[in-house]
Amino acid sequence: MSDKKVALFGWHPDVVNYDKWPGMSAEKLRAALEGDRDNLVSLGYDVVLHYIRDGETAFETATKALEGQGYDCVLIGAGVRRDEDHFLVFERLVNAAHMAAPDAAICFNTNPSDTAEAIKRWI
Description:
The chain is built from five helices and four strands, in the order βαβαβααβα. It is an alpha/beta fold.
């Protein structure tokens, strides 16, 4: 069992523009994100899934979620990072992690199926 604490950040499934992600839906995204969390928990990590609802509050939301929590790793999901329209949201989340959890590694997945591999690269 690991005692490593992990924060996962991604868009709340209810706010995603699914026109950009053919074949994806709120139900599928929620299942994928929660599946990632559950998989990491089964591997022994202490995991908290944090949803972002809009770009304007992303920095504050992430900062409040991370401050004083002792995270070992912060993962920012591909849905935030890979959408060019959300480049500034990605930047805000990276800076929130850097400032509010300075001892945490920061990692990135490419899709919901490789989240555990991204975490394992850093902790």
